[in-house]
Amino acid sequence: MKILCVAEKPSIAREVSRILSGGRFTTRNSRNKFIKNYDFTYNFTSLGICDVTMTSVVGHITNMDFPPAYQWGRCVPGRLFDVEVIEKVTKQDVFDNISNEARTASRLMIWTDCDREGEFIGFEIYKAAFKGNSAIQVGDIWRSQFSHLERSHIIDAASHPRSLDMNSVNAVACRMEIDFRVGTSFTRLLTDCLKQNRIIEKGGLASYGTCQFPTLGFVVDRYKRVKSFIPEKFWYIAVDIRKQNQKSSFAWTKGRFFDRMFVTQLYQDCLQTEEGTITNVESKRTTNWRPLPLTTVELQKDCARFFRMSAKAALDAAERLYNKGFLSYPRTETDSFPATMDFAGVIAKQTGDGRWGAYANSLMANGHEMPRNGSHDDKAHPAIHPVNYVAIDSLTSADEKKVYEYVVRRFLACCSKDAVGHQTTATLQWGNETFTASGLIVTEKNYLEIYTYKKWETTKQLPPLEEGEKVRISSGQMKEGETSPPNHMTETELIALMDANGIGTDATIAEHIEKIMQRDYIVKHKQGGKEYIVPTPLGMGLIEGFDQMEFDNISLSKPFLRKLLENSLQKIVDGERTKADVLEEVKQIYRQAYGVSSQKMTLLASVCRQIIAQNS
DNA sequence: GCAAGGTC
């Protein structure tokens, strides 16, 4: 009896084969240069010893399309909400490999990632297998459940398969159809109209996407807030005391007020007394927590912040390091490690390095900590960590060097003790007002010694103060300040906003930013050594134009619709709603918005024209 | 020529 096993990517097929076969497998090439077919035998608990062929796909192998009659220019874009969609095989060689291998198989076992997309890819694999062997039915599919490649976990997964979760499959099918219909209809409408109005060039493209526009919306929103910012004056009271020839500044616990008279009144009351009283001195141990295990989004945010690397460049470098076997899988939302992971083994591989080897050695000698567990789990991959050592000087790409070093230091930091400090806070009463000052001494750096990207340092110390002590106010002043404008959007902030609002995924956030840059909706702008993202006049015109149309309580440039879709998809997964039901509801919202948009295209064009003229 | 999601 032959079992056909199919994974989502070649690296998983290789690893699972290695584990299940105990290293005794033979390898055949497929027509796709990335994909190998591995043959071995395995003793499945329920079936006994079976012949196994393990292979993989490379992500999705099919996609949606419209029939020829509905290609660009052949119908009005509004029809795309309702015409039939067809399935098209996008990777014929991969598809055929599965059909062929399925011919001699009596069972199909799906080893795709255990997330929603993985479930759908599993269904695509089933269809390819069924084409080669119609004796394989949906009910015969084994779906193995695993979230990392630790040996016992994989063997357990091999003996406890479940069935394919059609709710998840339907949720993904729903997402695909919405994104496809909405994206294509609006893109054709926008492009055709902006071309007619000569706002974009003949060969140009003005795309709309359910992720592209909310992303652009974030950038435009920030830009407008910076431009329309009006500074406001505020007032506050600041106090210095002097003791042992040392000045200490105390901050007002009330902060600041925009009412000058009010602060003046309080300040006048204070001036009645020349002395203040120390009402409280508190000295306590504080800790500064080691970082959480690394996710893709965190990696991208930190690379942008620490190395000024774009999200795309960071992910590309991490991917190359993964393909060379140095890093674990770099696309993950999980901020924890499996409890069974061999942390000491991972640390031991780093002990020979010239920069961090000594630290790794000290962790080995003194015992490492168990990493903290974050609350996110994509149920498919563990947090990003080094799997093999490479001397960074032997890497040729500057980005790879930085990313590898960062991932290693982050991992060692995860296995280290938290930093410890001592914080002293003194409270001062002056008249009716209270003020505080504090000083920090870092007593044990611990993880900070290896995680050099972060600063937590000893500050200026307070002089010895006692509760009840009278102190002379060496300077008590009412000061004036001014609110400052928000900064322009950084890539780090944009990634964080997208992540928080469910726009895109760990694997696609970087791509959406790149795409709207390609479309000339946003540009990166250097200012004072920092890089900011600002909208182009076209990008502003599009958002402004859509915002001026009157939709019924919805916005095409904000993240709410995407979030609504995401919530509804989860309900499909949970079995609370059907795909047909959600599809109709969401389609109806966009269909209506499309109707309004197509009527108001002249408004959009004139808004665009106006903003472009203002900025040229 | 159009989307977003996988992966290489």
UniProtKB/TrEMBL annotation:
The keyword DNA-binding applies. It is an enzyme of class 5 (isomerase). One of its GO terms (biological process) is reciprocal meiotic recombination. The keyword Signal does not apply. One of its GO terms (molecular function) is RNA topoisomerase activity. One of its GO terms (cellular component) is site of double-strand break. Residues 2-147 form the Toprim domain. Its EC number is 5.6.2.1. Belongs to the type IA topoisomerase family. Introduces a single-strand break via transesterification at a target site in duplex DNA. Releases the supercoiling and torsional tension of DNA introduced during the DNA replication and transcription by transiently cleaving and rejoining one strand of the DNA duplex. The scissile phosphodiester is attacked by the catalytic tyrosine of the enzyme, resulting in the formation of a DNA-(5'-phosphotyrosyl)-enzyme intermediate and the expulsion of a 3'-OH DNA strand. This is DNA topoisomerase. It comes from Scheffersomyces stipitis (strain ATCC 58785 / CBS 6054 / NBRC 10063 / NRRL Y-11545) (Yeast).
